[in-house]
Write a structure and sequence with these properties.
Layout lengths: L2 E6 L2 E5 L5 E4 L11 E5 L15 E8 L1 H4 E2 L2 E2 L1 E4 L2 E7 L11 E7 L2 E5 L9 H4 L6 E5 L8 H11 L3 E5 L14 H5 L13 E4 L1
Parallel strand pairs: 3-4, 4-5, 11-12, 12-13
Antiparallel strand pairs: 1-2, 1-14, 2-3, 6-7, 8-9, 9-10, 10-11
Length: 201
């Protein structure tokens, strides 16, 4: 069974059926007991790119937005049982040429990690992809607020939508989670996952 640990903020750890390990947007310092085969970074803000805290396997691959978005072209790569496709992400705080979201294919599941973003037209395309889980930021300061995140979630129409990055983080030592904000996400299939919680997908 594929497992997903929500470490907190926008940080995740995925464990595939075969035991391959991927970390997304490392920042939260929990759940770091498994060596990474793959690390994904959506952009280079400090609360998304702390790859140094992650234990790495000998052949670990680190993919940053600069590896997956070059001269306006978004790339797809297969790494350690994961199929990774970069997709658009942007808002006033996150330039479109330096930020991406990721579609992650693993064990016949398709997961969408939006990165730091507000609504982008590409989300209409996602509605046709039969996404199993979508992870959307909703802090309302550096990203869209919960109302816009709800509109995005309904556009994407994933089977499950998880609100993340629910509160702004302003320092390397501060990770907040706003459960009340998360609960306001208005979409069918909403799934609230508290930090430091691991679920089976």
């Amino acid at each position: 069974m594929t497992k997903l640990l929500y470490q907190g903020h926008a940080s995740f750890r995925i464990t595939s059926n075969r035991g391959e390990i991927a970390y997304i947007d490392p920042f939260a310092k929990v759940g770091l007991n498994l060596q990474a085969d793959l690390i994904l970074v959506t952009h280079e803000h400090f609360d998304h790119n702390n790859v140094d805290i992650v234990p790495k396997s000998k052949n670990c691959v680190v993919l940053r937005s600069s590896d997956m978005l070059i001269n306006g072209e978004y790339f797809t790569k297969d790494v350690s049982g994961f199929k990774i496709t970069a997709v658009p992400a942007e808002n006033k705080n996150h330039p479109i040429d330096r930020c991406v979201g990721y579609l992650v294919g693993v064990d016949e599941l398709l997961l969408y990690f939006a990165g730091d973003t507000s609504y982008v037209d590409y989300m209409k395309t996602l509605a046709n992809m039969d996404i199993d889980y979508a992870f959307l930021p909703c802090d309302g300061v550096f990203n869209m607020d919960i109302k816009e995140a709800s509109l995005c979630a309904r556009t994407i129409s994933a089977k499950h939508t998880v609100p993340i990055h629910t509160a702004p983080t302003n320092s390397p030592d501060q990770i907040d989670y706003d459960l009340q904000n998360a609960e306001k996400l208005d979409v069918e299939g909403k799934q609230v996952i508290k930090p430091e919680t691991e679920i089976e997908l």
